[in-house]
Amino acid sequence: MKLYNTLARKKQEFTPANGNDVSMYVCGITAYDLCHIGHARSSVVFDVLYRYLKHRGYDVTFIRNFTDIDDKIIKRANETGMESGEVAEKYIQEFYVDMDRLNVERATVEPKCTQHIPEMVELTQHLIDKGHAYAAENGDVYFRVRTFEGYGKLSGRQIDELESGARIQPGEKKEDPLDFTLWKAAKPDEPSWESPWGPGRPGWHLECSAMSEKYAPLPLDIHGGGQDLAFPHHENEIAQSEAATDKDFARFWVHNGFVRINSEKMSKSLGNFFTIRDILAQFLPETLRYFLLTMHYRSPLDFSFEALEEAEKGIKRVYTALDQIEAALGRSKWKKSPFPEELTQELADIEAKWTEAMEDDMNTAAALGQLFNAVRLAGRIAEDKKLRQSEGARDLWTRIREDVAVWAQVFGVFGQQPADFLTELRDKRAERKEIDPDAVQTKLDERQQARKDKDFERADTIRKELEAMHVEVKDTPDGATWDVI
Which long-range contacts (CB under 8 A, 24 or more apart) does 125-128 make? Predict the structure, then answer.
C-alpha cells in the first residue's frame, strides 16, 4: 500500500512501525459551530482510510481530538451568554449527529483539550527546561522556532521566507516574530487553568502534541488533516513534539484537498458557505458521502448542487443494479449450461483493479469505477437470455454481491437494502420537487381502478397528469410503482 506523504512530497510504501499495529491521529474540529462541507470531506476521507486499514487486517488506534477551548469558542460563548464549556459540548454533540448521518465511525480515542491540561503544562515545562521555549513577563509562553533546525520541513518553507512576513502583534512579548504561543496568559472573564507561569490556557498547536503522545507511541504512523493545517498548525506540532522528545513525531503526513463551491473557495463572506445540514435538507446523507469519494482525496473538490444531482444518479444506478441482482438470485431453478470463462476472468480483473486503486494512495475515484464495472457486468449477464438462467450466472451474481458488500464496508456507502434505499431516494427527490407522495399514490389507485374498469383512456390521462407532476409510472407484475423524472 502506498500513501502520499506530505513530508516526503511523494508516494511511499506504507508499513506500520510496530508490526500489525497502526497509530493514526487526525485533527478534529474546533467546537464552536455546526460542521460545514469541508469538515465532511476530511471526516469521510479519514474514515475511509481507517476502514481500509482495518480491511487490510491492521489493528488501528485512531485518535481524533476535539478542541474545546479556543478564541472562537470564547467569542461564541460571549455572544450567546453560555459558558465556553457549554458551547463546546453543544457543538461536539452536533458533530456526532452530523457524522452519524454520514456513517462516519467513531475514532478509537476522542480526547478533549480541556481534559489534558496537565499533559500540556508538563510538555511546555519540558520545552522550557530544554531551552526551546520561554515564559514572557506577561505569563505567555512561546516556542523558540530558531532552536528547532527542522522547522519548515513539512511545508517546504525556509526560515528566511517566514521571517520576511513575520510580525509581533500588539500585546505579544516574543523574542522573535517567528516564535509561536504554547501557553496564553489568562484574560479577564476567560476560562483559565493554573500553571507554573500563572493562570492561562493552552495555545492551539500544543494540544495535539500532548494528546497524541499520551495515546500512541511516537512516531505516529499517520498524522492527518486538511491541507490548510499543514502550515502553521502541523509544522508547529512537529517542532514542539520533536524538540521535546528527540523523536520523529509522525512517519506519514496525509492531507486532504480543499472543497470549492462552484469553483470558488468556500467562504462565509462570499455567501457560498454550506453546512452539512444545509445539504442534507435536500439530499440523502449517503449521496453526500458518495459524492465526497468521487474525487481523489488530495484533489480539490468542486461542490455544487448540480454535482450532487449527478452523484445521486450514480448511486441510484448502483442500488438499482443491486436490487436487480437480488431479484435474479431469488430464482429457484438454474440450468447446468456452459458459462463463458472470460466473464469470470473479467470479474477477477475488476476485483484486482479495485484493490490496486485503493493500494495506490487510496484512490477511491478509481475504486468506485471498478464497482461500476462490476454492476455493469452483472447487467450484461442479465440481458443475455441464455446466460441469465445458468448456474454460472448465479455464481457470478453471488460473487458480485459479496464483492460489493466488502467494498461497501470500506466506502461506507452501498450498504443498505437496495429497495429501501431506492424508496428513500425517490421520496427525497420528490420532496425537492415538492411532489406529494400521498397525492401520487391516490392517482395511482385511480389509474389502477380505471384499468380494472377497462377505462384505458382515463388510465392514460392519469399517466399524463402524473408526468406533468414529474412522476414516471412503471407497471410491474406486482402492480404500478413510480419514480421522479
Answer: 125/196, 126/244, 127/182, 127/240, 127/243, 127/244
